[in-house]
Amino acid sequence: MQIEVQQQGRSARVTVDGRLDAAWSDTFAARMDELVRAGADTIVVDAARLSFLSSLGIRCLITLSQRLRAVGGSFRLTDPSEPVRQVIDLARLGPILLVGASTTVAAPPMATAFSGEGFTGERRLLDDRAQARVESIEPSHAPQAWRGGASTIFIGHAALASAATDARGRFGECLAIAGALAVQPTDSPEPDFMDQGNGAMPAWIHAGLDVSGAMRHFAHLEATDDRGVAVSAIVRACVAAEGGPVAIAIAGLCAGLCGAAARTSPDGWATPLDPRDGDVVRKRLRFTGEPSWIGESALIAGIAGAPGCGVPGMVLLADGVHAHLHGLACAFRALPRAATPLATIARQLVLEQPIRGIVHLVDDSRPDGAGQSKLRRACVWWSPLTGGAR
Questions:
Q1: Predicted confidence band of residue 105 (pLDDT cuts 50, 70, 90)
Q2: Which residue among 100, 174, 267, 379 is least enclosed by CB atoms within 10 Å?
Q3: What is the pLDDT of residues 54-100, one digit of tens each?
Q4: Strands 144-146 and 203-213
Q5: Could you tell me the CATH superfamily of domain 2-97?
Q6: Count of CB atoms within 10 A of residue 312's CB?
Q7: Please, how many CA atoms are within 13 Å of residue 118, restricted to the half-sphere of its CB?
Q8: Phi, psi of 320 (to 5 degrees)
Q9: Where do the domains of the chain lie?
Q10: Among 369, 135, 171, 128, residue whose Cα is nearest residue 268
Q11: Residue 91: CB atoms within 10 Å
Q12: How far apart are CA 126 and CA 54, in angstroms?
């Protein structure tokens, strides 16, 4: 099979010549995946020279159609050869493969330009009354159960266990949004997750930040450089747009996460972690040696503000930006450009995609350090933090 691609922005026209069968379906699917990763969400496949279509080929086309429509895009097979049309007609798939979806959707909120250092995009107002609060949960020998609601974010150290006693020695980096919780346990190399929205057993919290409240703004942005835009630049733009500290969540195509994760369970640390004590830091934390999980999806959440904003729990992330952010990497999943509830995207990434790792984001500016976390494109939600910490 020969595959020719013409892409212009979000649209791509694909010409195929040959057979779309068991021998070629993986090749075709991989090429379409490259297009989606490159930002295409409207794909037309010219099938005039497609000589044969098997059941595996049909499944490949249907999967692509569903994937694009799930993010507000579209897929269409055009000018099918006679053998291909006969197969599609026999399977009664013409309305799905040959005709674009014609659903009526509500008009999106009005968009305005949104740009910053290394990115361009647009933002929308979701709820002009929305605001968020943050509660700092201090380390304790008596872990507390956490059950997240639809408007709750938790970042910190947590463990999955049936009881508080079973959680001891298992605490690790955690990111939870809307009841979808993922944790990087220190007693296992594999991240774990759970859905607390269905009444499952609770997660146990050792320490962290509990952020509650709705999101006021949504933005979609694209990096102006293939190497990606620094997460700190996105955060800085949101803080500047709000004129103060924010609760923030970001989901996007990862160009590398840089961070640290606990080596040993924090409930066993005899003293608080002092960043100035290099020996203790190396014993307790594991750092990404280089930007990690490039090409996967990333989900990042936490709080941020300018230096001196009065919100505790934040540390220097980059020049002019203090923050406390956790990042989760998972298998790639295309994201919609339209304003979509954070809870929907977070639950899809945490509960439906294989999780690669979870880290506390840091700016590793050492000469041989990993540098800053970056994204190639992203959806961003943020809301003003009011009243500081409770």
A1: very low
A2: 100
A3: 888 888 899 898 888 888 888 989 999 998 888 888 888 888 888 64
A4: antiparallel
A5: STAS domain (3.30.750.24)
A6: 12
A7: 18
A8: 80, 5
A9: 2-97, 111-135+207-389
A10: 171
A11: 14
A12: 45
